[in-house]
């Protein structure tokens, strides 16, 4: 998977998370989670794009660390939606799977960049 594919995939993830938040009920807790999920999922896409423009390998690794934190946070909020029975698991499962896959991809990319930096 190349940079363009990951840019598109992370942006699609953000769009899908935003659409999911539209299905949340109109409660105080749901409004809080909505804002958090929108912020973290869009941050994944924005910071991945920024990592692609990093000035150095160290800059790339730093930005990728932020991407990993944000995608993991997105996973947390998706899981929390299910834990609090705000939406049924079957509505959230695909996004949780995508968050887990993106986390694995970004961690592998950071590991590769870190190994290359040490060479």
Brief account:
The chain contains 4 helices and no strands.
Shape, per Cα inertia axes: elongated
Given as residue ranges, the uncertain stretches (5+ residues, pLDDT < 50) are: none
The helical percent reads over 70%
Strand content: under 5%
| Mean residue pLDDT | 96
What's the CATH C level? Answer: Mainly Alpha
Return Rg in Å.
15 Å
Q: How many beta-strand runs? A: 0
Task: Describe the structure using short key phrases.
elongated; 4 helices; 119 residues; de novo design (two linked rop proteins); single chain; mainly alpha
Characterization of this structure:
By secondary structure, the protein is an all-alpha fold. The model has no long low-confidence stretch (mean pLDDT 96). Helix 3 runs antiparallel to helix 4. The protein is built from 4 helices and no strands.
